Amino acid sequence: MPLLVTACSSDQQLTTNDELFSTETMKAIRGMTKGFAVLALLLAVIGAVGWRGWIWWTTMNTPPIAAGTPAKVVKLRIPQGTSAQEIGKDLQALGMIRSSIAWDIWARWLMVKEPQGGFKAGVYQLSPTESMPAIATKIWTGDVVRLSYTIPEGWSLRQMATYFEAQGFFPAPDFLAAAQQFPTNRYPWLPSKLPAETLHLEGFLYPDTYDVAGGTIQPADVLRQMLDRFQQVALPLYQKGRRQTSLTLTQWVTLASIVEKEAVIARERPRIAGVFLNRLQKKMPLGADPTVEYGLGIQQTPDQPLTLEQVRTPSPYNTYLNVGLPPTPIASPGLASLKAALSPENTDFLYFVARYDGTHVFSRTLAEHQAAQVAIQDKRKSSKSDKSG
Questions:
Q1: Does this model's pTM top 0.85?
Q2: Are the CB atoms for 318 and 286 separated by under 8 Å?
Q3: What are the Cα distances from residue 314, in Å, to 47, 317, 323?
């Protein structure tokens, strides 16, 4: 049987190939189009997220309050060991930054950038008109504020403790405990043999205004600062004039502290010191109200003076019952009182009573003193009666 051969023309073959090419090409094109579309969509999403992220980050970095706008400045104390996250939360709560999350991100960047660095403890002055990076740099570099404290003449340790707590330095009990346990080896001139219940630094913390770095301030730091000032100012005064007095250093400061509490007018300080020294020499009780107040932890006023019961209450500091000086100073005397105790007025007065205007009436005898007391009380009663009428 003859072989049947079917022949195709070249035109028919080309047509078939073109159709096959066209189909495959279109499929490829459609695939590529879809791929480009997905890629474009992905890039668009990434771009949108990135743009939104950049807007968010830029916003979080801007100050909560625009620069130039009046804003409350805040002093933030950062204790030792505070974490970056805790700092961020505190800053956001105070309105200093917009976001603690953004703060955490920035803190991590700083830690990567400077592995040996870290946020420093201390007191910082911050404003909501500062940017978050600016605030972070300030705390990272330890740009703390300078603080100051002022101890007036005549303050006791307990008054100082209350003041430091009110100023936010540290709790009052911590200050008193530090004063009680403070090592004296650096200051060999401090009294070493005192009754256990006494505060052995009383009177030796020099009253003045002090500057301190705004870091983490401990009670021992301010105690050391005030003792150093006493050593610089008061101690040389005693060492120079010790030949003119029979008083020991502690007795001198103790007498000066009583003068400080009694005197209001500067010119009366040497005379008051002279009265007390006369009574000491004659072994008479000093009869100083401030010592009774110190022992009882009270403070009398013109309208509420010490009662007879209080004056008769036994105490190591009751100079109505005990002859001689109390066991310790009762306050921190200033330079004028220290000088007066070292160079008292040479007088024969033995008594004095306050006029309630800052001055005193001085007397030589008990009878004169009692008469002065009566006259002052009568005048006070008369003045009150005139005002009420």
A1: no
A2: no
A3: 85, 8, 13
